[in-house]
Design a protein that fits this description.
InterPro entries: Bact_Transport_Assoc, DUF418, HGSNAT_cat
Keywords: Membrane, Transmembrane, Transmembrane helix
Organism: Marinomonas rhizomae
Number of strands: 2
Helix content: over 70%
Protein name: Putative membrane protein YeiB
Distance between the termini: 23 Å
Amino acid sequence: MKQRVNGFDLARALAIFGMVIVNFKIAMNAETGNVWLMKFAGLFEGRASALFVVLAGVGVTFLTKEVRGSRDRIQLYKKRVLLIKRGLLLITIGLIFTPIWEADILHFYGFYFLIAAVIFGMKDRALLLISAVIMLIFPVLMLFFNYEQNWDWSTLAYASFWSFDGMIRHIVFNGFHPIFPWAAFLVFGMWLGRQNLSDRLVRNRLLVWSLITFLVTECGFYWLRSIVGDGSVLEMTPDEVTFLFSTSIIPPLPQYILSAGSSAVVVLVACLYCSEIFSESRINKWLCQTGQLSLTLYVAHVIIGMGLLEAIGRLEHQTIDFSLFSALIFCVGGIVFSLVWLKLFKTGPLEWIFRKIAS
């Protein structure tokens, strides 16, 4: 496959748009307004960010493709150092960014990259096994540690983040995108990137199995919730039933990982097909270019997007209608900015800085 695959850029653009929708909703505390718009926004919660991490794993595979399986220790060492440098840079940027945006994902990304630096040379089956183990470690940790510690669910604020114990707990176990189990998405993405995605048979097989996994997981846990009911039979509260038997992002139990991971594959395969079928479409080209500036747009949606909303006094306690309208305006602006910028430069501003520092 080509080093720059339009389908992946298209998927990155959609992932960024989904994250903008979710994060604007969170920042604005948009819990009122049109019911259907609320349901629409809910479709992206925990899904857009999962797709983004899977794509990062695919990117790691492309980055290390030339040396994977090589006996040249020097080249392997250079790629490992490159991943470590990128991971450390993401951790640094993310921790600086966290006081501005508490739900930052970049510092978590950094730790995923450190894991990738260790395992990128492993075989396909080993990657799938590691991904499964990372996913399953999380519920084990829940048996020994309090997942809700430091959380104020009413405001989604995390206390004691800057303490040693709080930061370790947040990054490893109960933050917004903790290593366990979120690193499973990146490791799975590394495996996915090794598949021959230019082959339609491979794509179709992935699409079918992902759809089956998604439907079985969602329907299966919907059925479990209906059986458990209000939880009285198991001496549980309705909130505890929802907490343990839902496929939502909080807590990120294995059923969430399976559901979000499979939906990410469905979207990715669909993007690969769409980018080929509509290769001459202007909209497709615009979206692919937007996906190339994903890091820049991620930071910009907080600093510029939310910053402007805060400046005009419209950041907090807004309706879902206004939240989605604001997200739409930002996304359109992001597309326009990407088109103009890439006419003048080869890569996005933050992407260029990132590569210069960590290369």
